[in-house]
Each structure stands twice: as structure tokens, then as C-alpha cells.
Amino acid sequence: MSAIINEPEVNDNVETEDAVRENVDNKVDNKPAGPDLSMILDIPVQLSLEVGSTEQTVEQILALAQGSVIELNRKAGEPLDVKVNGTLIARGEVVESQGKYGIRIIDIAGGNDRLNSLL
Predict the structure, then answer these.
(1) DSSP state of 52
(2) Would you kindly state where each structural domain of the chain is located, as residue ranges?
(3) Which Gene3D superfamilies match (predicted)?
(4) Which CATH superfamily is domain 42-118 in?
(5) How far apart (Å, rounded) are the C-alpha atoms in residues 68 and 60?
(6) How is the beta sheet containing 47-50 ordered, strand by strand?
(7) How many other CB atoms are found less than 10 A from the CB of residue 113?
(8) What is the pLDDT of residue 85?
């Protein structure tokens, strides 16, 4: 005589009750699903805007005087690089508001751009 055992059906697409509860709790509290970054939000970082760059010899730099023009590797109207601690994070354009300069972000750098900026 053999016994028939009814095992529960396994469905990999169904979330566990705990996972469903956690998702609902996050949505109710409007918490982001990622890691808690609150401990690092007040750490100062160096934000810089790079119009362009060039390489020059010491002799060329010493020859600079008031009114000298240094040719950069960018064309007029190209976006500036927005860097945090030297790492490219975005590109933007210069804007003026109430007599002060600012930058309007027009593109957020992807992972490949960030990697290339380190090389």
C-alpha cells in the first residue's frame, strides 16, 4: 500500500507573504527601496564645472599675459562637464539668473561615461 502525499505546489513567480508585506510597508511610508543613505548626505564633496582643457608646456604657461587666449579642447556651445571629486556625473549648460551664473543639467552621465572619465 502506498501513501499519497500532497506537497504544496511550488511557484517561483509568487512572492512570499513577508516580501509582499515589506513592499506594501515601503510604499505606505514612501521610503526608497534602496539603502539608507542618511548617514552620508551631509558629507561635503568638491563639485566642479569643466569648460574644457588643454595641455601646455611650462614655457607656454610662463608666456601667458593679461589678454592671452588659451585654446581648449571644446567648441563654443558644447556642454560643460559636471564633476564630483573629479568624476564626471553630468553635462550642462551655463545659465544666468539675477546676475549670477549657474548650470542647467542637460544629461546625467551613465556608467560608461564615469568609467571613461577615470581613464
Answers:
(1) -
(2) 42-118
(3) SpoA-like
(4) SpoA-like (2.30.330.10)
(5) 11
(6) 47-50, 80-84, 87-97, 100-108
(7) 16
(8) 92
What cell numbers appear for 71 in the block? 585654446
One-character DSSP codes across 57-87: -HHHHHT--TT-----SS-TTPPEEEEETTE
Q: 85-99 burial string, b = 16+ CB within 10 Å, else e?
A: eeebbbbbeeeeeee
Dihedral angle sign, alpha carbons of residues 103, 106, 109, 113: negative
Express each pLDDT in 56-96 by its tens digit. 999 999 999 999 999 999 898 899 999 999 899 999 999 99
Report pTM. Answer: 0.56
